[in-house]
Amino acid sequence: MSLVPDLKINVLTNPDRVSEFWAWLTKPGRSYVACDTETTGLDWPSASFRVRLIQFGDTGGGWAIPFEGWPSLVREALAWCSKARVKLIFHNSGYDAMALRKLGIDIDWSIVEDTFVWAGITGYAEQARTLKGCAQREFGGWAGQGERILKGGMSNAGWTWADVPIGWKPYPLYGVVDTCITAGLWERWAAKRKGKENDHALEIAAIRLTNDMSWRGLPTDGTYLSEQIDAHTVQIEDLKAQLATFGVTNPAQNAQLEKVLKADGVKLGELTANGSAKLDKDVLKAIDHPVARLVEQYRWTYRVRGTYLQPLFQGGGGALGRGGRVHPGIKSMEAKTGRMAIENPPMQQLPANDPVVRRGIVARSEDEVVISSDYGQIELRMWGSLNDDQPLLDTIRLADATGGDFFVEVGKRVYGEPDFVKKDKRRTLLKSTIYAKLFGGGMDVAAATAGVPFYSMTSTWKMLEETFPSLKNPGMSLIHTAKNSEGHLEHSATSPYGRRFQVLDQQERRKVPNYVTQGTAAIALKKALVALDAAGFGEAMMLPVHDEVVFSVPRAEAADAMVEIAEAMDSVFEGRFDIPIHAEPSMGENWAEAKG
Fold it and tell me: Which of 4, 363, 423, 529 has its Cα between 20 and 30 A from that of 341?
C-alpha cells in the first residue's frame, strides 16, 4: 500500500453493476478480501439494531453494499469466499460476525483472519490496536483522515450511525477505506505473522466460542433481581440519610466528604488533577472514619444496583420469574495481556467474593444446574514457575499437600510463627503485597488493597522480598532486551506456550513480567475453552470470567460433567509448569452457589 493510495471506491446502488462487483471479488488469483460492516450502533441484541452497509476491499479499493437492498448478494459473496477458500480479513471479527449473525448469516470461521488479533500477537503491548491507530502508525496520517471528515460532518448535521444517509458520500467512502487499510495491514505484517499461525488460530477459536456464548445469553432470575433492585434502593436511601447527618448530602462527589474528613483531623494525601484530595475506593478503605465506611458502602451499593442488577434485569426482558437472558459482550482479547473483557454488564470487574449479583444468574432450565470451574491461584502458580522461585513453589506444594491455606503457610514462613492462622490480620498484608508484586504495583497499591496505612506495609514488604527471590525485583529475570529490526530496543518475555509479550517504552518494561504471567493464564483459559468444546461442552458454556468458566448442564449428568470438565481444563498445561494447576468445578442452583 502506497503512502497516499489511489483507491477505487464503489457503492453498489444499481443492479447493472452487480456483475462488475462480482468480477472484482472473483478475480483470478484472489487469496483474500477484507470485510467490514457499518451498523446502527453497537448494541446488537437490541430489536432496533440493523446492519446498514457491508464493505469488501483490498489494497486497491473496494465496494460498499447496502445490505437491505442486496441481502442475497452478500450471502453469495461470503459463500463464494468459503468455497474458494479466500480468506476474510476483519479488524475485530467478533463484532462483525455477530452483526452478520443477527441477519441470519454465519461466517466460515476457518477462513477468518483478524488484524486486531494480529496486532496483539505481533505488536507491542503499549500500542493501541484500533484500526486507525494501527494504520496511522504503519501508513501515516491519511489513514485517519476519512474518519475525521465523517465524524465532523455527522456532528454538524446531527446524524447518528443509525440515520446518517447512505447516499452521503463520506459514509460509504469511510467504510470502504476501512477495508482497504485492513488489507494494507494484513499485507504489511506478512513477515511478522510467520510462525505465529497457531497463536492466531487459538484467538479465532476463542472469538468463535465466546460469540456463541454471548448469542445464547445468560439466563437470569427476574424475580430475584427485581427484589434486589428494590432492596438496594432502600439501602441507598438509608445510607444517604445517615451521611446527611454528617453534612455529606451528595456521596457521589468528594468536596463535602473532603471537608468533613479534614474537619475531623483526617490527613489526606494524594491530590487529583484539579487539586482536590483523592478519595477513590482504595483511599477510602485506608481511612479510619465512619463517614469513609458509609461512603464506601453507598458507592458500592449504588454501583451494584446500576451496573449489574438493573442491566441484568432489563437485559433479561424486565420480566419476573425465570428465563430472561442477557447477552453480555465478550471481548476475548481486549487487555494488553490478551485477557478477556466483558461488558453489559462488566462481569470481570465483579469481586470474586460477591454473591449478590451471581445469585441472579441461573441454569437454563429447572432440569439443569450451574457449574463453575475455576483455576485455583493460577497467576501465583504460573509466576512461581516462570521465575523458578523454589521457596515460593515449595510453599505452594506444602499448602497443597496439607490442604492448608497458601497465605497461612507464607505467614508461618515469613514471620517464623508455626501457629500462624488464617484469621490473623497480617494474612491480608501478605496477600495484598504478593499480588501487588505480581501485578506490577508498589507498596501504595498493597496498602490500599489491604486497607492499611502505607507505613504499616514496610516490614511485611521487606520480609517477603527476603523470603521469595522473585518478589525482590519482580520478574526482572524474565525480561529479554534486544534491538528490533528497526534498531529500537524492545523488552520482552516469552510464555511457556511460545507467545512473546513485548514493549518498546522503557517505562513499560517493569510491567512485562505481569504481562507474560497474565497473558499465559489467558492463553491457558482459551485453550481450555477449545478443549471443553472438543469434549462436548460447547453448548453448555455460558460465560468465561477471569480464570473461570460457567456452565449450565443437565442436573442428572452434573456429577459426571464436573469430572470431565476438570479433565478437559487440566489437559491444557501439558507439563509446561513446575507446579500443578488444577480446575476446581462445583455446582449449585445459581452461579453464587456453584462458586461457593
Answer: 363
Ranges assigned E (strand) in 288-357: 322-326, 329-331, 341-343
Per-residue pLDDT band at 3 (split at 50, 70, 90): very low
- The highest-level CATH class for domain 219-326 is mainly alpha
CA distances in angstroms from 180 to 8, 163, 441, 490, listed in the order given: 10, 24, 41, 29
Is 504:489 a contact under the CB 8 Å cutoff? yes
Q: Angle at Cα 509 formed by Cα 503 and Cα 510, nearest 5°?
A: 140
Q: For the chain, where do the domains classified as CATH 1.20.1060.10 start and end?
A: 219-326
Q: How far is CA 486 from the centre of its chain?
A: 31
What is the band of 144 on the pLDDT scale with cuts at 50, 70, 90? confident
Interval 111-140 mean pLDDT: 94
Runs of H (alpha helix) within 123-168: 131-139, 145-157
| Amino acid symbol at 116 | F
* Domain covering 8-194: architecture: 2-Layer Sandwich (3.30)
The pTM assigned to this predicted structure is 0.93
Report phi then psi at 405, rounded to 5: -90, 130
CB 189 within 8 A of CB 117: no
Domain limits, CATH 3.30.420.10, in the chain: 8-194
pLDDT in tens, 540-570: 999 999 999 999 999 999 999 999 999 999 9
**Residue owning grid cell 468533613:** 260
Long-range contacts at 501-510 (CB < 8 A, ≥ 24 apart): 501/125, 501/337, 502/124, 502/125, 503/124, 503/125, 503/126, 504/124, 504/126, 504/127, 505/124, 505/126, 508/125, 508/126, 509/479, 509/481, 510/440, 510/474, 510/476
Determine the pLDDT at residue 156.
93
Helix (H) or strand (E) holding 233, with range, is helix 222-244
**pLDDT for 5:** 67
pLDDT confidence of 6, banded at 50, 70, 90? confident
The grid coordinates listed for 294 are 458509609
H runs (alpha helix) in 44-70: none
Q: Give the amino acid at 547.
A: D
CA distances from 414 to 72, 394, 459, 463, 468 (A): 69, 13, 10, 6, 9
- Cα separation, 229 vs 310, in Å, equals 7
